[in-house]
Write a structure and sequence with these properties.
It is built from 8 helices and 14 strands. It is of the alpha/beta class. The strands form 4 sheets. Strands 8, 10, 11, 12, 13 and 14 form a 6-stranded mixed sheet that branches. A 4-stranded mixed sheet has the order 1-3-6-7. A hairpin with a 2-residue loop joins strand 4 and strand 5. The longest helix has 30 residues. The two termini are 37 Å apart. Pfam families: DUF707.
Length: 393
Amino acid sequence: MGTLSRSAGGRKPNETMRLIVTTFVGVVFGFLIGVSFPTLSLTKLNLSSSLLPNVDLSYNEDQKSDISRQTILNAWSSTRSNNSSTKAQSSNGTGRIWVPSNPRGAERLPPGILAAESDFYLRRLWGQAQEPFFDMEFSKKNIDAAVKKFSENFTILLFHYDGQTTEWDEFEWSERAIHVSVRKQTKWWYAKRFLHPDIVAPYDYIFIWDEDLGVEHFNAEEYIKLVRKHGLEISQPGLEPNKGLTWQMTKRRGDREVHKQTVEKPGWCTDPHLPPCAAFVEIMAPVFSRSAWRCVWHMIQNDLVHGWGLDFALRKCVEPAHEKIGVVDSQWIVHQTVPSLGSQGEPQNGKAPWQGVRERCRKEWTMFQMRVANAENAYFKAIGVDPSNSTTH
């Protein structure tokens, strides 16, 4: 579901507007809310993901998939040691990626990873990643509570992947919302097709959120103030620390407004400026600036719809990432870990629907990591640079 504040078209060009856009995606639908400044602001929330290969996950009908942090960190260390895409600027400045011929906003990305065009092919949540798909009371209460955290200056987009749309007419705000309904698709599928950077260009910030977020301690207006104050291009609200979180970085701290770095267990962060100790947010509730989203949109792959891998790669879109990516502690949320997409799969070969979805997520994770690595290797070779002689960044 998405919500948009009043259109700028009806106001004078020089009139300052405040607009925030947020997106929630759940069992029933996705939700987007927008808030703007002289141009409009857009904010989005995402599912958690990592740029790591072959990581096993546990998943059941009562709980969302839980990632073994040690497994992830082992994989991450291996990835970083073999992935030239993480190489830093050499002394003559040729080690960083900057391609002026790329689409505007995506200059920091290697050409080989760009997905500059999209499509309307439906994508399956299970099976092979490139195969097209041809084929609620909890959610309602959650989304209603979330929408009410955003004033009428916000634009609301609702992404429905269960086909229900008119069922939301019981809420007054539903008449002001934009409803997009496509069955069994993820929020990243929607984002790639309906949130093109040129379409959301009037907005300053974009929120892309899951639907299972408790927002009792969240205020959208105050959140944007803190994001501006601390210069965050990519952010997320802090997460309630007593809910079995995977990462220390996204855990809320009660003694500050914002944090940008954390300390993990010994050996987990070989560089304090790299994920998961810095330059890192999860994909269940990310918030992007307009310029950061322009880059991230080009990095989202059309066929890798679960978004796994994005959270470790988002840092490629801002510089310096360890200063411009952070967690807002004083406006925090609760991740309620309500299973949703797993039930949208189909049983195959005797496996439960959620098992097929989990396997697809894991495959996408590996495929995205390899695509990024291959694209960056090709870029460096094309400009005559040996990334192995540079240091990581």
